[in-house]
Please model this.
Amino acid sequence: MKLNKLIYFYALLIFMSFTQFVDAQEDLGRYLQIAAENNPELQVKFNEYMAALEVIPQAKALPDPQIAFAYFVSPVETRMGPQQFKISASQFFPWFGTLGAKNDAAIELAKSEYEVFEETKSRLFKDVKADYYNLYFSQKSIDITLENIELLQSIQKMATIKVEAGLASMVDEYRVQIEINELENQLANLKDKQWALETSFRNLLNANNDFVINFPENLWRTDFPLTKQAALDSIQSKNHQLLQLEFKQAALAFKKKAAKLEGRPDLKIGLDYIFIGEGENNLSGKDAFVFPTVGITIPLYRNKYKAMVQEVAYQELANEKKKESKSNTLETLFENTWKDYLDADRRINLNKNQVDLARKSLKILETEYATANKNFEEILRMERKVLQYHLALEKAVADKQAVIAFIYYLMGK
Model:
């Protein structure tokens, strides 16, 4: 039953995390689900969180009872008879509030471990999306390069016809072949890079090498829905690394309270059972109870307890400064990321216009070459521009979505 509950809890966390992606980007949403279910690192963090939950009942538990047995080698004679053996049972009770403080500290530490799990999940989703966008661009680069090879081959046919007609030099045909050779070499490199990227992506999903990765024909071009300030506010309040440090700070506060209470006496309550043997006064076999026995521990070594409290105080200060440093780092990281977001948006608009202009120019140059036998070098130069701007456009589209994914990661989503 407990295992089923854990599986249900884990599945619920996964479902809540990736549902938002499934409707708009079905394939990517499916990959996020697979990664959440199979990624080994995420499973490690989840099990560490479950282990932290198991500390809570340990923290609030009383010390184990003590039972002692004493046998009188030389029975002590009493008026009721000789004492033969004694059984003692006792229980220590920490000072009032000590166990509660330890329990609260364990709860806050478990919350801190949960934020570590959530941080790992957010980072995993960011990595999956970033690798997916890189894979899309790599695949698009292959497709665009193939299109340009076909375009050059059509230009080469045009040049061949003009050479055979004596209207152009063989140099034109050679120039086209040089461009084709370079693109074919670039295409081979792109295919090698694609396999390496696919391997990285499959490892994030913990999938086999035969796992098929699908891409849209054109990547979506969604904008980030929040303002810059709203995003920064969300980072400062919901980032999992900051939340983890907040819960750790709360745990340290309870730990310091428990350390202070450790310097108070512990209480001991117990009872003794003494077995009385047969005596000469015919009161044989009558056992006696001594109840209760009460005792306390005396915390004489005050320096030890002062050091325990001071230790936690230093840990609190260090954790507070660590949170402050992390907050500053996240703000700087967000500012750079926001700059990249604006840059990617500008590059999309620029390269979209550049592609349109370069294609129109290429058509004009092709017409001029076909009719007037001029500007062949300009045809090759403009063809390279078409390739350059088309690749830059797809790179900007992929970069923009990767930046958005990174901002969501910083926001703890």
Summary: DSSP finds nine helices and four strands in the chain. The domain at 2-63+98-264+301-410 is CATH 1.20.1600.10 (Outer membrane efflux proteins (OEP)).
